Amino acid sequence: MTTAVNIIPIFVIVPLAGAFMISIGGRKLKWLADFLGVLSTAGLFIAALFALKLVNEYHILVYSVGAWKPPIGIAMVLDGLTAFMLVTVNLVALMIAIYSVKYMEHFTSKWKFFTLFLLMLGGMNGVIVTGDIFNLFVFLEIAAIASFALVAFGVERHELEAAFKYALMSTLGSLFVLMGIALLYGFTSTLNMADIAAVLAQKGSSNIILLVSVLFVMGFGLKSALVPFHAWLPDAHPSAPAPISAMLSGVLIKSLGIYTIFRIFGNVIGVTPAIASILMVLGCISMVVGGFLAIGQWDLKRLYAYSSISQMGYIILGFGIGTPLSILGSLFHLFNHSVFKSLLFLGAGAVEYATGTRDMKKLGGLMKKMPVTGMTSIIGTMSISGVPPFAGFWSKLIIILAAVEAGQLWPAVWAIVASVLTLAAFLKAMKCTFWGDVRVGLEKIIEVPFLMKFSLITLALITSVGGLLLIPGIQNVFLNQAVGVMTESADYLIAVLQHI
Amino acid sequence: MAIYLLCLSFFSVGLYGILRKRNIIKIIIGVIIAEYAVNLFFILIAYRIEGRAPIYSPNAEITNMVDALPQAVVLTSIVIGLATTVILIALAMRIFEKYGTFDITKIRDLRG
User: Fold this and answer.
1) Residue at A417 is within a domain
2) B10 lies in some domain
3) Whole-angstrom Cα distance, residue B18 to residue B12?
4) Is A158 near chain B, with CB under 8 Å?
5) Which residues does A57 contact at the CB level (< 8 Å), separation at least 6?
6) pLDDT > 90: what percent of chain A?
7) Which among B38, B80, B87 is the nearest to A148, CB-wise?
């Protein structure tokens, strides 16, 4: 017990130390950035798997930063949901780091890229492990500021415009979150999340909590790009370099937006029926509007970005319904979406790497020239549009079944409609890009280098066999631990406060 | 009560700047004003009328101290605000290099 808790700060220390060392030595030693980038993400992924094992053993672990006991000091908490998110984030980060080694060669100053990348990863891991609400805000901003710089990494017209829009919207979202935190502190006189939950349970409900909930829905909704707050995403995600698009769409909007909504509404404030229905309506609108807008796009990465909005809708809908089954579906979809959306974005990056364009009107017939990229992208497509044996099918099925079971028929219908829209959008993308005859001018292109293929193939394999996570033995280890945290939120605060 | 309303109107001034101004620099100033308003609000929550600084000294009575935690917290928040402002201004400078204007109605290559 005493030694096991020491794993928790590692998730923050390792990426921050890596970023620091790359920023010092990366300019002189060309290999250092690649080496430290891949090594630290690989180490973090192994540590995340180990954390999953610890969670199954101890159920919950609490680390007090600087030996100040919570609720006075900052607590870092490792429970089922945390371990689940850590595995997801660090798996995708490892794959993206391996991919970036080759992909980022045609950008100058790769070491700056890896510095910002690790800084962003440190921020995300920090958001996930922290048990203190202001600490969460600080890590949120670390990840967000690093991502602004990464979106603008190409410093061309579009990148800069998108980055400015993103930075402005995201900063506004953070201000709403900070205001919510201020009100919450004024009401409860504590910043520790478990302690806030305990105080709120004692004091009962109040209009202040309603205002705080609205502020948090606005702030975290902006971060996770739910539909009324989505305008920045389709600009920012395609403008970034492909690995960063994959990182932003794959894990950043989830750890900054979705995870924080899950944690704060699920464990701290509590979901009132009004908030649940707001989240359900936002989820439905996001699914359908994102799906429709995706169909109209001719830029490959823009289409993927719009479909991310649509898939975020599923996750929020699953959380809004609020039964254990729907939360299971929602978390499972979160994991699946991280894997296949980063796979698709990396595929789009490979297409851009080989051909120099991502305009679907100029592409075609790439399957013959780039079989690995083509096949993996088609696997990703089938998974995201819910074709049976792939992982995406199972998670969507669970969400729809849970909606029907909870008596929410309209959300279930919209979820099916959105699934059809996704299929339509992705068939268009695949037809224009990979199928058909090779376009004039594309005869000489060749398949991407080995390290890029390695990431694509690994992610494609994971999403192909992802349905196996639902086998009871595996489900108990990975998903049910996380679902348990959400459904038995009283346990969370008791466990955290008892570890003092 | 009046002081909270003043703080809220301060925030609204910043929000107005973000939403209505066309010049990028004015928008950034709007962000800064809104940030300061939120920081001020956090400080005001912990303030007590006639309160004194939370410093222990042997012979002083411990009464009516101002809560010190929000002050520490806001200090962090100001540093974060500085980083955000710096990156926004850096982006604005690069945008001016590429587009030759600060007017957002003319910087419209991308349509959300």
Assistant:
1) yes
2) yes
3) 10
4) yes
5) A4
6) 53
7) B87
